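sorry for the late reply, my laptop died twice this morning and i had to redo everyting from scratch. anyway the thing you sent over, i finally got around to it. pasting the sequence first so we're on the same page, its 90 residues, then the predicted structure underneath. double check i copied it right bc i was rushing
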Amino acid sequence: MSTTESDTPPDGLQVPTVLPPRMSSREIQILTLIVQGLSNQEIADAARLSINSVKTYIRTAYKKMGVTRRSQAVTWAVQHGFEPPPSGRE
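ok and here's the structure:
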C-alpha cells in the first residue's frame, strides 16, 4: 500500500495526506472518526458497518499503532496528522 491515499474520504472527513504504513483505508476511516469523538455505534452508523466490524477494525488499528486505549489512539493519530475535532463538537 502506498503511503498516500488517493481516494476521497467519505462525508468530507479530514485525513492526513501521508498515511501510517500498513493501515487499510477502512482503519484510517475508523481512526479518523474516533479522533472526531464518535462512539463505536456512531462510527458503525456513519460507516454503514456492524458494531462488531467497527470493534474489529479498531482492534487491528490499535495493534498497528502499538496502543491499547482509545485516548492513546487519539494522541497517536493527532501526532501523525489526523485532524482533531472542530471546537464546539461535544
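The two ends are 34 Å apart (CA to CA).
thats about all i looked at so far, will dig more tmrw
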